[in-house]
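Cont'd.
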Amino acid sequence: SGSGLERPQLVTYVQQALSYTLFDCKWLPRSARLLCLGSSARGTGLLQLYELQGGRLALLREIEKAKPIKCGTFGATSLQQRYLATGDFGGNLNIWNLEAPEIPVYSVKGHKEIINSIDGVGGLGIGEGAPEIVTGSRDGTVKVWDPRQKDTPVANMEPVQGENKRDCWTVAFGNAYNQDERVVCAGYDNGDIKLFDLKNMSLRWETNIKNGVCSVEFDRKDVYMNKLVATSLEGKFHVFNMRTQHPTKGFASVSEKVQKSTIWQVRHLPQNRDIFMTSGGAGSLHLWKYEYPAQRLKKDSEEAEMGLVGSVSLLQNVTLSTQPISSLDWSPDKKGLCVCGAFDQTVRVLIVTKLNKV
Amino acid sequence: SLPLRGVRVTSANIFCTDQYLKVERPPFLFEAVLFAPIDDANSTAKIGNGIIFFTLYKKEVAMWDSLTLAIADKEKLQYLRENAVLKAHERAKEETEAKKVTEKEHKKYALEATMRLEEAERRRIEDLKEKEQQKVTKELELWQKQQKDAEKQKRVQKERELHQKVEQLKETKKDKNNKTRIPNEGTSKARIKPTKGHGSCSMFSEEEQLPAPRSAATIKISFTPRVFPTALRESRIAEEEEWLCKQAEARRTSNADLSELEDLKEEEKNPDWLKDKGNKMFATGNYLAAVNAYNLAVRLNNKLPLLYLNRAACHLKLRNLHKAIEDSSKALELLTPPVPANENARVKAYVRRGTAFCQLELYVEGLQDYEAALKIDPKNKTIEKDAEKIRHLIQGTMQDS
């Protein structure tokens, strides 16, 4: 513990008011540039590329597209190309070369309704295996795409015939520790979390956390799956120990409640997988640290292995806005540097200090 | 000095003002009216050894004819006594007031001191934060510079690579007749991912190493069942359950007298079918027939809120305003508990009842219902406009009366 000033501080470095609704913000890897994705008042999509220049954000490029853009990722692109994959309100998945953004490098109308969430794996020099992009949509399906294969997804997780569809709100890749293994975790508005194994093409685990699932993320995509954080409506998030799967009880978890408002996003610090930040509907950011338990598993009465889960402690929190902070991204290149976007049409760049002392 | 006849005396028994001295310890009393005023604040009385030793300081240095004044006049004595008591009281008052003033000043001083300390502390923390901010800003600027330099380097390198490629192409063209030349390993480009194989173009070699796209497959899933289209919220689960139970019960209710309905066709005994019929007739403007359909449906099942809701709409069109109010109210009664699933129905019920009230010129009640509707659906512009109109009407009539 120690005095309050010894803990990490969340310092606002620069903020910029925008003239459109901001849905996602992402750092351009290997640079001091960031992208803002959103919807203009006219109902068109906007991509803005900013650069940090001496205490302010300088707009380098503005690109307008037909449909509002909901989400984007650099996860499946190489470091040389740095192509951006986006999901838009019309259900289209596009991959853009930001140096020549007039025509997408890849384009498919992947879903019948808005793509709520997107993730990429296999790029940026992280992990192994094919580059893949996963999209989750309001049409209730989760689809995995390979940029080398046009038009059809390489995996499709869809409801059985006649089933009432639920909104898929969030998707995340994980377990990509070699060329073959990969999982996709998806969260839905009815509280379902499902874990799909792409190597075996099967449903590996599912559970229901009693509140719509806003965001899921593995602490690292490219290692043998370790921890998964799922955030939800009504201020709750759950941390699952993904190392041990019990045959009936699944994965062990611990949950925390933070205020009453929706927890929109969770993002793990790229440089330390036990530190993560959650962003809230009341315009706040909370920085957490996970402590591992003394033992990570034990045997139950039938000799089956059961995971044990540790605890989460709050390192720091700050309230930046009265509107929800709906997007959050850590810089992969500078420890502690992060960008967040809120529904008050403001993008803020923050620096989290003293992370080395945690 | 005053001898004490074996009694114990404390300071409470001694009373002294500037010209009057009294020691009272029942049954003994000693009283003296002094010849001239003394400084009673500095005078002392020492009690001990069976006597009280008074040390009295004269106000004016002079010889006294005697210690005390003999006053024969009882009244005067009484007056003197009272005066003395008054004086003592006044003095006591002054003392307490003076004490209060000093206390206040002390408190003020203490408060100011603490404020100063807190201010200093706050400033210290702000300074630390400022320093932190500056440090962090400097670090960032340094890092930004590094990024820029790295980018520049990369660009230079790209150009070099391009140049090399062009050179290679020229060379391979030259060597068309000869065996194909293996490009010079020494000019291989720096890569972030180390490549195992070699090739003439970086793009292809990377692709060679990547596994092929996986063969397409589908996983079929099913969801934890949820009746409502809205997202699941833990705090609303109880309410939603209640609503669902009510709806389920309502469907099962059948409270009509079977004998009366024997001559009805099978479909006419189904409240849902009758409701649909009613809706169709409403749509074509046949309000009376619609009311009949709803009436029959209600006789079969009086727990379905939508029947009352739709019948209220018919009554509005037929200007049966009281019946419209009755039916809207019954619908609202059945639409509890309020959940997102029955929001639309509740809004309609409030609006219909509000309209009926207004047509009966009961504008205040009408406005109440419109505002209730607006509370559920704040974004509805039509309801907002109508509510405004009603407000103006009310203000207009108030001005007239």
